[in-house]
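Researcher: Structure for this, please.
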Amino acid sequence: MRAAVLHETGQEKLEVLEDVEAVGFGPGRVRIRVRATGLCHSDLSAMSGVLPQPAPFVPGHEGAGEVVEVGEGVTRVKPGDRVVVCWLPACGACPACRRGQTELCLAGFMNAGTPNFKRPTGDVFGFAGTGTFAEEVVVDAGCAVPIPDDVPYDIAALIGCGVTTGLGAALNTADLDAGSSVAVIGCGGVGISAIQGARLKGAAEIVAVDPVASRREAALRFGATRAVAPEELADAKQQLTGGEGFDHVFEVVGRSATARTAYETTRRGGTLVVVGAGAMDDHLRLNMFELFFDEKRILSSMYGGGDVLRSYERTIALWRAGRIDLEGLITHRVPLAEINEALDQMRTGAALRTCVEI
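Model: Predicted structure, token format:
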């Protein structure tokens, strides 16, 4: 079958090969024919080494498709079912799951160290234990989440990561009050989803911050009340809050520099929500006096900060009701053979989300 493979960490291009085989099928496992997958910035981060991932590997973790085959003991899905690929399934038994913090379950991370594919030259891993830049993938049954037949594959793919992460950051992690002032730094697919979540919660002011003009324009269509370039943020803070700062600031880039800016843009007693996935050696510097004196809450949001399966259901309900726009997030579409074009669209900021049709 075909799959896009990164041979070595640090390479910028993927090679679409036809000699890749999905492996690991057996009891408790599901084989999925991938129909659509989104390109998330985390894929780029894994390719560059910002996020740890053994190589060679097939990127992609935001996917949807059709169940081809189920292993012994699998009862939740059957062949022919539409599913979204959940890259962080909950085991239901660990301490985090028992506390109700299923998004912190580590079971899914354990899958990242087991090869999902093989070639004649050897084993190939799947990013985050999945690897959806492939025609087929074999995953644990918990990774195959059934969805209604009326949800298109491209929409379902977005729900698999970016939309769930961004919406959840606003709805679950921040749980902001109606009338709040909000700034969102980084307006790709996840940041736009956070903007939609803030709008749903009734935020009065939503300032979108991004260096790319097309993303700023898009943010206004999705609910931002103002969109500014990074160098204009200080002026927006002064004009809208009298210099006090915003009630809630979302950092959706994953860099210490933007997290520091987000902290300084948050009012005293306000909330900074860190959504972006950054590098382990990129340290955020805060002094002990400001931590005490400003009483700002610093919250991180992992995969939307809530129960993933419930978040999927909520997102589908909101989409059906017309309360959120998911179709508009897909600004580009490419076949798997043109995956490197999609990577360039992500790197330059030209795309909110590129749908790779497989």
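Researcher: Any notable elements?
Model: The chain has a mean pLDDT of 96. DSSP finds twelve helices and 19 strands in the chain.
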